Structure formats: structure tokens, C-alpha cells
Amino acid sequence: MTIQIGERLPEGSLGEFIETASEGCAIGPNLFKVAEIARGKTIAILGLPGAFTPTCSAQHLPGFIKLADQLKTRGVDEIWCVSVNDAFVMGAWGREQGAGGSVRMMADGSAAFTKALGLDVDLSARGMGTRSMRYSMLVRDGMVERLNIDSAGFDVSSAEKLLAQLG
Length: 167
Fold this sequence. Notes:
The chain is α+β, with helices and mostly antiparallel strands. It is built from six helices and nine strands, in the order ββαβααβαβαββββα. It has helices at residues 34-38, 54-66, 68-73, 87-97, 112-117, 159-165; strands at residues 13-18, 28-33, 42-48, 78-83, 104-107, 120-122, 130-132, 135-140, 143-149. Thiol-specific peroxidase that catalyzes the reduction of hydrogen peroxide and organic hydroperoxides to water and alcohols, respectively. Plays a role in cell protection against oxidative stress by detoxifying peroxides.
């Protein structure tokens, strides 16, 4: 069952490759509990089928990086890019895309969080296995306020669409 507007994000953890050590975060992959890091924040989440894939790399993620300041001006505290990849891959993709400081590159290596959202898709026919549907959502204090799921392309889940929904 797909998560709905008004529902709380499911329990789960996401990985993030940290490049600079800070209090509570070592250099390298760190695992974060979604409920803890979403508490009290407004978060824009974009879900993508895979790191380094053509549409994700050329259009979808770059839109969120480009509009990060505008999203934050309209009340978004953090932007998360979630994909069914490991933290090392997400970290490398974030570096390549210049996401540092604007978008947190969150790994869902086993697709557990994506499956709990009901936003998983079987792309085995393309050699990719279980992946994430392409989506964007706005979450306030762990509750889904907006949910935009693409069936093809990325118009519905684009950064521009989410920004327009913020008013």
C-alpha cells in the first residue's frame, strides 16, 4: 500500500556518506533513523530509481540542487534525495552532482524504507532489481503533506512542481 497524504513516514533508517566528521557523525557511511532526523523539520524528499542514471543525473536531481535556496526560503529545512543504492554510491553521486550543502544524498541500500513507503518498483527487466519509483514529497514533522508520483518522466515530481505547491 502506497503512503498517503496525512500519514506518518514509516520507521526505517537511511544511510548517508559523511565527508567531514562532526559531533555524532564519523567520516564514511552513517545510518540515521528517519523518525529522528525528520522530527520538527520540513523536508522535501525526492525519490529516484538510481544514482548515475540518465534522467536522474541530467534533470531530476539537478533541479532540486538548483532550486534548493528557493525551497529553503519557502520553509524547507532539508532536501533529501533517496535512492536504492548504497551510501558510497550516493556519496560519490552527490559529489559529482555538486549536491553538498544543498541536498542530503540518502541511501536505502536494501530498499526497506522504499518498500515501507509502498513506492518500490521492480526494474529487473532492465537489470536494476527493486528500485524506487520517481516521486517527490513534502514532509512536516514526519507527516506527508504533499506526494507527487510520476508514472513516466519527471514532470509531476520535479523541483519546480514541489516549489509551486509551497505557494
